[in-house]
Design a protein that fits this description.
two-stranded antiparallel sheet, about 350 residues
C-alpha cells in the first residue's frame, strides 16, 4: 500500500484544477518544498528485500494494477485541467499554477510510469506506456530510451548522459535535440533491417508524430486555443522534468573504453542512486536507478540497493532543485565524482 503515496499529488492536482488561490499551488509546494525538506530529515534506507520477499513482490499484481490505473487517471486529470483553464475566467497566476501542476503530472505520472511500462515485455503494457508518453507529447522517448540510452549510457555517444562540468541548461538542449534525432535514426534503421523504406507509414516515428498531431488537434478543437497552448506548456514542463531527472541520474559518470568491445558493461556504478524513502515512493522506486540500468527488465518495486553504486546526497526532488543552481551543484557533485575516481566526460 506504500505505492499509494504518489496518488497524493494526483488528489492535490484535482483539487487544484477546481480551485483558485493558494490551493492551486498545494501539489507544487508538496513536491518541491515538503518532500525535499523531509528527505533532509529522514535517513535513506539501503535495505533490500530478501529472496522470498522479492518473489512475493514480483508476483503481486496490485503493484501492476496501480501502474495501469495511472493511464485513465492521467487522462482524467488532463480533461479536468482543460475544462478548468478553458471554461472559467481566472487570473494569470491561477492559470500558471494549474499549468505547472499539470506539468508535474506529465512528468511524475505520464513519463515516469510510461518509462516503467515501456520496459515490460507484454505488448499490452507497452501500449499503455505509449499512451502515457503521448500525454507529454514525448512518444519518441519509447524508442530512444530503450534502444539508445540503455545501450550507450555513461558514454560520450549518449545524449541523455550529462557530462562532467555541463550545466543542466546546456544539457536540456543537447539531450532533447539529439535524443529526438537519435530516435529517428533508430526507427529508420529498424525499417531498413525489415526491408522497408526508411520513411513510411510503418515507421514508428512517423506513426508517433501523426498520433500526437491528432491528439493536439483534438485538444484544440475541444478546449480552444487557450487550452491547447497551456497543454503544450504543461507537456514541455513534463519533458524538462524528465530531462532534469536524466541529468541528475548520470551526471559526470562514465564507462571505460575497452579495446575491440567499445565500452565496459553497464554496472551499478554508472548511475547515481538514491535510497531516500519519500522520493522513492513518489516515483514508484525509480530513484534506485543504478539497479535499473544494471537490470533494465526488473520491475521498479524490485530494484535493489548496491553498496558500490554512487549515492546522491538527497532524494530526487532535492537533487533536481540543486541542479538548477549550477555553481552549487558543481561544488557538491564534482567533489563526489572526484572521490569516486571517475573519469570526466
Amino acid at each position: 500500500m506504500k505505492y499509494l503515496a504518489p496518488f497524493l499529488i494526483y488528489v492535490g492536482a484535482l483539487a487544484a484544477f477546481f480551485s483558485t488561490g493558494w490551493v492551486v499551488f498545494i501539489p507544487l509546494i508538496y513536491a518541491w518544498v515538503v518532500i525535499p525538506l523531509l528527505e533532509l530529515l529522514i535517513k535513506p534506507d539501503p535495505s533490500n528485500m530478501d529472496q522470498s520477499q522479492e518473489e512475493l513482490a514480483g508476483k503481486n499484481r496490485i503493484y501492476d494494477f496501480f501502474l495501469y490505473l495511472v493511464v485513465p487517471l492521467q487522462y482524467t486529470a488532463l480533461a479536468c485541467f482543460l475544462y478548468s483553464v478553458s471554461s472559467h475566467q481566472q487570473g494569470w497566476v491561477d492559470m500558471l499554477g494549474k499549468t505547472m501542476v499539470m506539468g508535474l503530472l506529465c512528468g511524475t505520472f505520464g513519463i515516469n510510469v510510461g518509462h516503467e511500462l515501456g520496459h515490460r515485455k507484454n505488448e499490452g503494457e507497452r501500449i499503455l506506456a505509449r499512451l502515457l508518453l503521448m500525454s507529454s507529447l514525448y512518444m519518441h522517448f519509447y524508442i530512444e530510451h530503450n534502444k539508445g540510452h540503455h545501450k550507450r549510457v555513461a558514454t560520450p555517444e549518449d545524449p541523455s548522459s550529462a557530462r562532467f562540468g555541463e550545466p543542466v541548461y546546456a544539457f536540456y538542449f543537447r539531450s532533447v535535440i539529439y535524443s529526438y534525432l537519435d530516435a529517428w535514426q533508430i526507427s529508420m534503421r529498424d525499417q531498413l533491417k525489415k526491408g522497408r523504406p526508411a520513411i513510411s507509414l510503418s515507421n514508428e516515428m512517423v506513426i508517433y508524430h501523426l498520433v500526437q498531431l491528432a491528439f493536439v488537434a483534438v485538444i484544440y478543437f475541444v478546449a480552444g486555443i487557450t487550452g491547447g497552448l497551456l497543454f503544450i506548456a504543461a507537456a514541455m514542463q513534463g519533458i524538462l522534468l524528465l530531462e532534469t531527472v536524466n541529468y541528475i541520474e548520470h551526471y559526470g559518470l562514465s564507462r571505460r573504453a575497452v579495446a575491440h568491445a567499445g565500452y565496459e558493461r553497464t554496472k551499478p556504478e554508472h548511475s547515481w542512486n538514491s535510497d531516500h524513502i519519500v522520493g522513492r515512493l513518489m516515483l514508484f522506486e525509480l530513484s534506485r536507478h543504478s539497479d535499473h540500468h544494471f537490470s533494465a527488465s526488473r520491475k521498479y518495486q524490485l530494484l535493489r540497493h548496491h553498496d558500490h553504486s554512487p549515492q546522491m546526497p538527497t532524494g530526487y526532488p532535492g537533487m533536481m532543485l540543486l541542479s538548477l543552481v549550477p555553481p552549487l551543484w558543481f561544488r557538491i557533485m564534482n567533489r563526489r565524482i572526484e572521490r569516486l575516481g571517475q573519469s570526466k566526460s
